[in-house]
Amino acid sequence: MSIDTAALHTVDPTRWPDVAATPTGPVSVAAGAVADRLLRRAVARLPVRLVYPDGSVVGAADPTLPTMVIERPDALARRIGRYGLIGFGESYMAGDWHSDDLVVVLTEFAKSLPQLVPPALQRLRPLVVLRPPRSPRNSPAQARSNIAHHYDLSNELFAEFLDETMTYSSALFDATTTSLADAQRRKIDRLLDAARVGPGTRLLEIGTGWGELCIRAAARGAQVRSVTLSAEQLRLARRRVEEAGLADRVSIEYRDYRDIGGSYDAVVSVEMVEAVGYRHWPTYFDKLDRLVTPGGRVAIQAITMPHDRMMATRNTYTWIQKYIFPGGLLPSTEAVAAITERHTRLRTVDMISLRPHYAETLRRWRERFLERRDAVAALGFDEVFQRMWELYLAYSEAGFRSGYLDVYQWTLAPREGGR
Question: How far, in Å, CA of 50 to CA of 97, rounded?
């Protein structure tokens, strides 16, 4: 498959001004001192080491354990003190610290996250964490902007680290599936099986990606309608469908899920609900309910987080929201169950966790991304961007390895007799 390289993507360095300079002023100095003490206290309880420029070590004595090498201790502490976990992420982007065991370091932090901050300080969280900006509330116009922020970066960028299927979600491995592309096809096929997609099925896909699910569904004989808010994905997905000779069975549109009409035997959506936003989850599931026929199936793949953490973070602003996925929030399984029970006819008929499979998928993406640094730089993505994406991929992998994150293929069916 060829990738359109007609235009290289140049990253504007002013896109992340917060990492350009260390926070200054008396508030930053005081907050940094507190953050430094908390970081040292936390690491003393974990199998992790901090190594400082003067050679001093905090934490585990065993030099084989995962290590954070601190290049600029004061800058790291001030960023964390002023901006919490956003500052922690920005400190990595800025080069204040690095690690040859980044995933392991982040996994250890993720395993112990609720215990790392003293209870007294946890109660102050609403006073000190950043609130989300007003803009990412996911109106139709803002939803388009949020999606473009990530998915319209460059098809060429994603092609550097994804496999030949251009699938950007958890794969599904087994004992005989070793290639990532085969594992992605296996994941898609399982979801289509769950939705009972076959010859003549009227299928709606919400969130096209780069078109692999459309292609595999149409190859089964389904008539596929797919919608996306990514102009870049739309362009390449349409081309891939045409190259597969399936344009007569697949229609791909630039359209918000809230504007879809019609009735479908099956509705599928892969890792799209995470971008919907907390306030719009009832709208999203109500739309799925209204679009599927009474005897049909809804099959989604969704990343989840623990319910208590979701409730604690739903009104705060995170590093992931600021730099990677604006406007998004991961649901909990409890939230999905409650919303579907309260607002829809949809009831769960099957669930399967893919958590270890996502950790492996992310490992492969991250290693490929690091191997392709020169090619990514040639596309115009600078060092700050590359460190940001390395952290994003490692942070996500650590979330699944620690159990802090999970991902499910979730099949729902309309209850007989209405709501």
Answer: 10
